[in-house]
Amino acid sequence: MGNADYVIRVSEAPSAVNASAWDALLFSQSHPTPFMRHAYLAALHDSGSATSATGWRPHFFTLYQGAELAGACVAYLKDHSYGEYVFDWAWASAYEQHGLPYYPKAVIAVPFTPVPGSRLLAKDADARAALTQAVQRWCADQHISSAHMLFGAEADLQATDSAHWMQRHTVQFHWHNRAEGYADFDDFLASLNQEKRKKIKQERRKVAEAGVHFRHSRGAEISPEDWAFFYRCYANTYREHGNPPYLTPDFFQRMATRMPEHWLLFVAERDGQPIASSLIAIGATYMSADGTFEPQNRVAYGRYWGALEQVDCLHFEACYYQPLAWCIANGYRRFEGGAQGEHKMARALLPTRTSSAHWLQHPAFADAVQRFLEREGDGIAQYLEHLEHRSPLKQSP
């Protein structure tokens, strides 16, 4: 494919794309995350976690201007809507009721990872627009029903909006450090209203009185034994909920060897034995001229957790309070708690609007979805306004 000065190439494996060029483009974006690094996407593919066999058939779009990589993204062809966290099952059902195929569809996203960030990597707005048009044209040529960009950055949404994709909004819950930084966890608690402050103290006390203690390790300090224990916890919790884990042990092994600087592990112990763990991602980083990785923004992401024993309030301690205390001690500006979960507000994670963009090839269905999204968007706006009135922070006098 070609467009003016651009040449578009489409490959079905991450190995066909230069990793250094991809990462350099990522680190130049306004909202990079570690989940869009080439090594992360390659690990999903090479470990068998996100492949055709699991319903995630990747297509890596690269846009070249001469020898320069000017734009790139990955679009997955999917025969289902699992692992996306932006729910379109009703759209698929409506297509089916009218005798039309909704699947396969194209999804521009990071599999199993509802973290907002740059999706359309591009050197400038023109390249991003060309990349958007290339994906849309490819879907039309391949008779793909639709394209969906999930949890995109503002620049991505501007590009898709210009191409007349429809926007959809959801709500996540993120913690923000104050401008000057909290001195410690108690200083943070002092910023909350009395009810929420009391609740957090009670929950932490329950865990401590159960004899549970925590230790944490970061990056290369995480031992192979701790990685193996974490996976036991992760897989056990998925299976307790009746689902197989999305990610394979090999995926986490690749994280340990190829992206160790992005991971922080908390392990809960009782009577000297590990009983639970939570894995936090740290990012993003950028590649400096000497090839080392340096901090670009101090953001942490709550990702995975699991337990082998049940302890009251252990989930809150492992997934929120321990990570927040670490973020405060290490000067991190934000902690993203992941998709859904209004209960997170009680832990001072505040509502944040996240956005996705959608293109449907069928005009009548596109019109119907547009009307639905307008109604849904009004509901989301009202929901956010309602949540703002329930802020756990102290009200200014």
Structural commentary:
- The chain has 397 residues and is α+β, with helices and mostly antiparallel strands.
- It folds into two domains: 2-172 and 352-388, 3-Layer(aba) Sandwich (Aminopeptidase), CATH 3.40.630.30; 178-332, Gcn5-related N-acetyltransferase (GNAT) (Aminopeptidase, 3-Layer(aba) Sandwich), CATH 3.40.630.30.
- Helix content is 36%, strand content 28%.
- The chain has helices at 19-27, 38-46, 89-97, 125-141, 154-162, 185-189, 194-209, 224-240, 249-258, 314-329, 363-388; strands spanning 2-3, 6-11, 57-65, 68-78, 105-108, 121-122, 146-149, 166-176, 212-218, 263-270, 273-287, 293-307, 334-339, 350-360.
- Strands 1, 2, 3, 4, 5, 6, 7, 8, 9, 10, 11, 12, 13 and 14 form a 14-stranded mixed sheet that branches.
- Helix 7 (194-209) crosses helix 10.
- The chain is globular.
- The protein starts with a strand and ends in a 9-residue tail after the last helix.
- The model has no long low-confidence stretch (mean pLDDT 94).
